[in-house]
Amino acid sequence: RESNRSTLGSFFKMEIMHLSCEDKGWMVKRNTSLSAQSSCEAWGGWEAPNCAIDHLPPQYDTGVYWCESSEGQTSPSLYITVTDGPVLLQSPVLPVPEGQNIALTCQHRTSSKLPARFYHDGRLLSTQPSGHMTITHVSASHGGLYSCEIRGDRSESNKLKDCLGTALHVEPERLQFFKMEIMHLSCEDKGWMVKRNTSLSAQRSCEACGGWEAPNCAINHLSPQYDTGVYWCESSAGQTSPSLYITVTDRPVLLQSPVLPVPEGQNIALTCQHRTSSNLPARFYHDGRLLLTQPSGHMTITHVSASHGGLYSCEIRGDRSESSHIHVTGQQFSSV
């Protein structure tokens, strides 16, 4: 049967699941116990931008799902569970901002609105007569593993993430670096590993390319040909953080721009930086079109909207920087 549960991470065996990527040209991919880094064409019905999986079997379709661009950039990943048990927990798939409410539903395969027990990190949280509960004004302490129980049958556990989920931190906080600089990378959550894809190496962890002292990764003497690429954090279960495309340039100019997606309505600060001088006049470009010339090399875009997303670069004394992608609302991934 077809599921009508939007953006949920648990499904019963034999349901139908629909997956899609918001942005044109992005592909649904997954890691399961039986397949690694495979695209929808290999295991589902693909008709861009939609992917449908019929008759879900737990052993084949439980795993980590995400969207990926042709350049290797990735969306936040979702861990989707397919269960052959009679009970599942409906909980938010995407990270929940602090202060908001969380709705949980314990669902039985054959009956609805049955009394249910809810658990947080293995401890009994509450018993509800109709199988629904709401956690109000959530904080970081509400993150963790949730499950539920009906008539003695326990659901699989779902992980509830806080607002940002696991993130890759970059120091200095920018997406472009000069050749021979030092870059420090780290993952927020314990046990997650920094990984990357570059033109010379695929799916390599920090030990192979930098100095790893958990949870930090340092790469010295950055090289354009070796270190330009896609970086992310990955858990032992294969879940991934949003990825960052980091550029190492041998040009004399780089652009400093936001590392993380920028919420609509906020401001964006851009700086055009010369390798040897500071506060020089600079031109700023958006998707190849001249945006503005600023006398000190700094500019601010106020109250951004989705139209401000795209590729940005800058120019000083005729030298153009590489381009970096600014995400205003971020790449989203949905399951139904």
Relevant terms:
five-stranded antiparallel β-sheet; 2% helix; elongated; mainly beta; Immunoglobulin-like
Shape assignment = elongated
Radius of gyration: 22 Å
Total of DSSP H or I helical runs spanning 4+ residues: 2
Number of domains: 3
The average pLDDT is: 84
Low-confidence stretches: 1-7, 330-334
Give the CATH class of the largest domain.
Answer: Mainly Beta
Most strands sheet: 5 strands, mixed
Quickly give the structural class: mainly beta
The helix content is under 10%
- What CATH calls the topology of the largest domain is Immunoglobulin-like
Strand line-up in the sheet with most strands: 1-8-7-3-4
Describe this structure in words.
The chain is an all-beta fold and 336 residues long. The protein has three domains: 10-94 and 96-160, Immunoglobulins (Immunoglobulin-like); 164-250, Immunoglobulin-like (Sandwich); 253-336, Immunoglobulin-like (Sandwich), CATH 2.60.40.10. It has helices at residues 58-61, 224-227, and strands at 10-12, 17-21, 27-32, 38-39, 45-47, 50-53, 63-68, 78-83, 87-90, 102-108, 116-120, 123-128, 132-135, 144-150, 153-154, 158-160, 168-171, 176-178, 183-187, 193-198, 204-205, 211-213, 216-219, 229-234, 244-249, 253-256, 268-274, 282-286, 289-294, 298-301, 310-316, 319-320, 324-326, 333-335. The strands form eight sheets. The chain has a five-stranded mixed β-sheet. The chain is elongated, with a radius of gyration of 22 Å. The protein starts with 9 loop residues before the first strand and ends with a strand. Mean pLDDT is 84; it is low at 1-7 and 330-334.
